[in-house]
């Protein structure tokens, strides 16, 4: 669906919870951050099954209308982009409705509830000929953009090790109820479906495809109360933590550790990469810096350097000046800018739904490995 030159890009958001609010904020901020580029943006419609939330989208974020029905968004001629921010189980119905109506789609991670559904959505998106992007905002941190550039310039040389961890602690409290992120039938898995898409996408983006995985999962708190009735306890069917060994197609070795019970962690995404020429390191809790070690420097000059990546976004980013410190929401602003830029200029966006399918394949391979207690090759997950 082309956006006519004389009209703003119209946005419809499905799901106005945490991420619906973040995305709405980012769309409003884009014209200011990018000096009016890539086009004027208008928040047209917000849909939430909870009518109060849909109303909040109107009064707080400034959407023109709110609704409980996704059909009202996809039928609207002034909406060009459908942005999906519902819990995982409900992504597909909104994405499919949007694609049927020829809308461009920006969808929260993970793209789908499981691998077959992800494959189906990616095929539908390609057939619809629209621009599609899955959210992976950590790609849009200046430190990660710089890391990718350095790797492409052979700064690291041949990559030996890729070490990733994404650690949260929100589920250490045994009184935390069994909300949707802990219910398999809504989220599709545990921490691997929750934090995994972020880390796995980054690891693939920086170090290439994974050939095989060997994974170990654990659920430490095996029963939790339901949100509706504190006296009713149900078994927890998803993992709190997972550790994955990986072999990359390049021959590099990797590890990924994901946990929602890592006491002391807040939003701890760590990446370390070691190669024949150099090494890189990043910690999301210290996002203004990329650590870089140049092994080709004279021995007495070697050591990790803190590269100040701060807010060095490429033009047309115009605000704020790069020296100011970075926050998480800024990466959503750049991710959404990148998507809208692709929509306006009729380009494909990245990461696309096909990239999301590669991440779903990895997730599925990890779960199969943990279940069957053996290494699983990604070639054991052939397209149907
Ligand atoms: N990119 C990130 O950093 C990030 C962070 C958190 C969550 N997420 C992803 O964003 C998505 C939403 O998570 P959240 O934290 O915003 O959840 P949330 O529970 O805060 O909000 C979800 C909203 O969707 C609404 N909803 C549920 N089913 C719906 C349906 N069928 N149609 C319309 N509205 C519906 C709910 O009423 C709620 O308002 C998930 O897929 C999650 O994985 C991404």
Automatic annotation (TrEMBL):
The keyword Oxidoreductase applies. Residues 10-134 form the Gfo/Idh/MocA-like oxidoreductase N-terminal domain. The keyword Ion transport does not apply. Residues 145-280 form the GFO/IDH/MocA-like oxidoreductase domain. Keywords: Oxidoreductase. One of its GO terms (molecular function) is nucleotide binding. It comes from the Bacteria. This is Gfo/Idh/MocA family oxidoreductase. It comes from Candidatus Segetimicrobium genomatis.
